[in-house]
Amino acid sequence: MAPEGGMGKTRLRVVVVEDRRSDAELMMAELCRSGFDVDWIRVETAEGFVEALTPPPDIVLADYWLPQFDAIRALGLLNEHAPDVPLIVVTGQLGDEAAAECMKLGASDYVLKDRLARLGPAVEIALQQRRMEEERKQALAALEESEQRLKLVLEGSQNAFWDVDLSTGRIERDPQLAEMLGYEVNRIAWLNAHFEELVHPADREEARAAFERHLSGQTPSYEAEYRLRRQDGSWIWVLDHGRVVRWDANGRPLRAAGTLRDITDSKTVRERLTKSLNQLRALARRLQTVREEERSGIAREVHDVLGQEMTGFKMDVRWLADRLEKLQSTADIAPLREKLDAMTRQLEQTMQTIRRISTELRPAVLDALGLVAALEWQATDFAKRAAIPCDFSSSHEDIEVDEGRATAVFRIFQEALTNVARHANAHRVVAELSVTDGTLRLVIRDDGVGIAQEHLASGRSLGLLGMQERAMMFGGTVEVTHNPGGGTCVTLTMPIHDRTG
């Protein structure tokens, strides 16, 4: 019974079969001392007892012998009207034979009136037994329902089921296998006997090895994909999946069961999708390379051509200013000098803009000094522009990666810091770069407000998608999560070399 009401006491509805009210009150007082909040009714007759069973009480306490009624008759009526309600015999004295008879007829326990201290524990045990019985019945009902559902699923599925006795090697397969392979259902016995002959020779050893690995405990389940020959000579791909379902006392497997499923169509589709995905990744990588090449070209043009022109223009303006100072009347040229000063300031701003654009298009430090130095520079530049401290550390002084990977890592770092500046409201950023077993790992953590879960789930953030796409082009991943102490953590994982060759 779940505690309800005040003081944490367990609510208890009791029917007391007793002709002495004083004895009934003593029982209730003992139950209250045992932690129960008691709602009780006392009856002395069979009619009163039956009426008191609606609704069913939590427990019945019955004297073994009353002038008009007794515990034996109460047990009979209880089994008829409320069989799940426990009954405890509470009486002045009870011989062994009478006690045995009561227990045989279904009494949960018996307590002598001169030992009422046992009543509370006896009631608690009876209630616990009742709960366990109810849970058992519910479990049996759920099991029966589950088995019925499973039966319906099995009847409607396209899987072929198998069951093998590992001690004898005897195996039984579902007739669905015959239909799967184009045979008559009555050929299932022949198929069981010649099954291994139908497995493609190139697949037999691996399928057998996968099963042995599971039997030896190396894998939690058995799973293998292989080809089976149909009656017409064609081949289909099947997924064979199963597990050991019974062991002996020494832990040796005795029985295994599983299913065979035709995966020919899905495997064909999967292979096509994998091929298309690889093609798309190659195309995306090429497009990204072209885009970076274009950016590099623009950066050179802006820096080398336009920058030089602006520098020359600035020198010409200064030369003109020097000449103007030599004129006799400066009053006439004052407006010109002001204009020239303004042009000089504008040229300074233009040159700063040119340098900024050049850096954003293609940071020279990435080509000149390498990936680690470029990330350090970006962290310093971010801290200066955003006024947010950014601590960067690396396990290596330099990391040798190809240009495409270096650019991808740099751009992902740049985008992550941009997101911090725009959305995080952070006070500090920590970035860590490491390489282990040929895999690069870059972790960027901030202590800001954190990214909303629905924003992550929606998949609509172009910045996050861009980072993920850049990583995917080189076999990597980008994971965005919440920091346990607040803020956001962006983790880039990428192989530093092509693993496909």
> Which shape, going by the Cα principal axes?
elongated
Low-pLDDT regions = 1-6
Across the major sheet, the strand order is 2-1-3-4-5
Mean pLDDT, to the nearest integer, reads 82
Could you describe the largest sheet, including whether it forms a barrel?
A: 5 strands, parallel
Written description of the protein model:
With 501 residues, the protein is α/β, with parallel strands linked by helices. Helices cover 52% and strands 21% of the residues. It is built from 16 helices and 15 strands. It has helices at 21-33, 46-52, 71-81, 96-105, 119-156, 176-180, 188-193, 195-198, 201-215, 264-324, 334-361, 364-369, 371-386, 403-424, 453-458, 462-472, and strands spanning 10-17, 36-43, 59-62, 87-91, 109-112, 160-165, 170-173, 222-229, 235-247, 253-262, 390-394, 429-436, 439-446, 477-482, 488-495. α10 (264-324) runs antiparallel to α11 (334-361) and α13 packs parallel to α14 (403-424). The longest helix has 61 residues, at 264-324. Residues 1-6 have low confidence and may be disordered.
Lay out the secondary structure.
Layout: E1 10-17, H1 21-33, E2 36-43, H2 46-52, E3 59-62, H3 71-81, E4 87-91, H4 96-105, E5 109-112, H5 119-156, E6 160-165, E7 170-173, H6 176-180, H7 188-193, H8 195-198, H9 201-215, E8 222-229, E9 235-247, E10 253-262, H10 264-324, H11 334-361, H12 364-369, H13 371-386, E11 390-394, H14 403-424, E12 429-436, E13 439-446, H15 453-458, H16 462-472, E14 477-482, E15 488-495
Parallel strand pairs: 1-2, 1-3, 3-4, 4-5, 11-12
Antiparallel strand pairs: 6-7, 6-10, 8-9, 9-10, 12-13, 13-15, 14-15
Helix pairs in contact: 10-11, 13-14, 14-16
